[in-house]
Amino acid sequence: MPGPILEARGLHKHFGHLHVLKGVDLLVQERELVFVIGPSGSGKSTLLRCLNRLEEPSAGSITVDGIDLLDRRTDINKARQRIGMVFQSFNLYPHMTALGNVALALRKVQGRGRAEAEARAREALDRVHLADRAGHYPGQLSGGQQQRVAIARAIALEPRVMLFDEPTSALDPELVGGVLAAMRELRESGMTMVVVSHEMGFARAAADRVIFMDGGRIVEQGPPAAIFGAPQEERTRAFIGQIERNHA
Amino acid sequence: MTFDDFLQAFFSWEILEQAWPILWAGFLNTLVLSAVVVPLGFIGGVILALLSTLRSRWVRWPLIAWVDLFRSLPPLVLLVFVYAGLPFAGLEVSPLTAVAIGFFLNTGAYYGEILRAGIESVPHGQTEAARSTGLTALQALGHVVLPQAVRNVLPDLISNTLEVVKLTSIASVVALPELLFQARQAQSVTYNATPIMAAAVIYFVLLWPVVRLLSRLENRQMAGRR
Ligand SMILES: Nc1ncnc2c1ncn2[C@@H]1O[C@H](COP(=O)(O)OP(=O)(O)OP(=O)(O)O)[C@@H](O)[C@H]1O
Ligand SMILES: [Mg+2]
Which positions fall inside the ABC transporter domain (chain A) (predicted)? Predict the structure, then answer.
């Protein structure tokens, strides 16, 4: 088995007096799909945002693909190309077409010429089945399509790990399926993924491991069947029970 | 005063023909002056707006003081100070330089505030998305935030530009031969108000299309918000 592609140890994060991450260890193997669940405010987004240093951890270490992310000498902008991120609110650039959104970093970060960047951007859009929407602006796309463009924007840079922060929770129910399908295809292509989401069905079907977070700590983790079927911790049980009631 | 006297004083064709070369030269100078001070003020504004995105209080407080100062000083006072005051400190400046400095300070402060509001109107998620793909802070600002910021405050930018072009007429107090100065010259030689009238008409013809454009943009934005 290859070593972990992502390794975070002893992560702490303070916002002023608020202690949000209280020593999180997270090892993710290559091609693994890790699901992170937990109540609101438990620190899931903060954890994810520390993993590409959108948030500066207060303490701990993070290594991605052999790069020490918190080392002063690390070029964070270079490192971030290996860590794709997808946001709950898509965050597409509204003044650029879908193609422009995907091509921007290919050109400005990777320094590719316009033609090559656009060819790669088209390929990425094709992978999320939106090649025919390349010329559309975000305002002309449905929420589900926008999120798939956001996925294309990330995968176009050929990241080693993808982070998803509640990628479907801003979507109308009928649009969720398309995004999950795109994520499933991504997984089948061998992408390593860390997903914060409460899509239990998807977790059961696709996740290798489910992590339950509460109060800034990892409370329990294991295969989906174990976490959903026979949680060991009382807090996990309560949380999963609550989610299942909400979705019933 | 008879009607003919009135026409003769304000709308004399003869006087206009006589004064036209002087007025035309003034008009061209006003255009050149605008082409200098608008970009200069805008660049000053961009610099101030960029500085305002820095969180450090070592930048923030001096910045607020700077903007407050140059928005409070009447532009005419500022210009006279630069032109007539600085020489006492051993700094002789030409009229054009004085006007350029004055507008850079005054207009820059206004453009800066408008652009800052524009930048703040762009959701932070835009910057985060850009940074997450490896763009530097400056690239994210330049490619993602600023284009949206400018679009969001375009009516205010145009409105301010309109004010700036009008304000170039204060350059006449430092004897820079722009449109108003030339009109006053012509008026004093001809003893007739027609050149002033003509200058007013020229300003109107120059700026009215911009005013129309502005109204349309404002209406469109209103409709967009509804
Ligand atoms: N930039 C910030 N400044 C101050 N406090 C913050 C900041 N970001 C997050 N927090 C706080 O940190 C805690 C954890 O937030 P986080 O967004 O990581 O939770 P979450 O598990 O993602 O919750 P949700 O399910 O609602 O998205 C919350 O109490 C939140 O208010
Ligand atoms: Mg969250």
Answer: 6-240
Q: Which two tokens stand for residue B81?
A: 């100070």
| Mutate: best of B126, B133, B139, B145, partner A, most A CBs <10 A | B133
- Chain A residue numbers with beta carbons less than 8 Å from the beta carbon of B129 are 85, 87, 91-93, 150, 153
DSSP β-ladder status, A4-15 and A18-29: antiparallel
Q: Indicate yes or no: CB of A150 within 8 angstroms of CB of B129.
A: yes
- Separation of alpha carbons B40 and B46, rounded Å: 10
Which has the minimum average pLDDT: A163-177, B8-22, B66-80?
B8-22
Domain spans of chain B, in order of start: 3-223
CATH class of the structural domain B3-223: mainly alpha
Alpha carbons A233 and A219: distance in angstroms, whole number: 8
How is residue B61 written in tokens? Answer: 């407080």
With 80 as the cut, is the pLDDT of residue A16 above it? yes
pTM: 0.87
- Per DSSP, B168 falls in state G
Which segments within chain A are labelled E, that is strand? 4-15, 18-29, 33-37, 59-64, 67-68, 83-86, 161-165, 192-196, 209-214, 217-222
Cβ-Cβ contacts under 8 Å between A and B: the total is 64
Q: CA–CA separation, A56 vs A69, rounded Å?
A: 10
Averaged pLDDT for residues A18-39: 96
Whole-number pLDDT of residue B223: 77
Give the position of tokens 């820059």. B108
State both tokens at A29. 């193997």
* CA geometry: angle A8, A9, A15, nearest 5 deg: 85
**Token pair for B144:** 């993602």
SS3 category, B179: helix
Amino acid at site A101: N
In chain A, residues with a C-beta closer than 8 Å to the C-beta of B121 are none
Concatenating the DSSP letter of every residue in B193-204 gives SHHHHHHHHHHH
Helices (H), A70-172: 76-80, 98-108, 114-127, 143-155
| Cα gap A30→A191, rounded to integer Å | 8
- Please state the three-class secondary structure of A188-199 as a single string: HCCCEEEEECCC
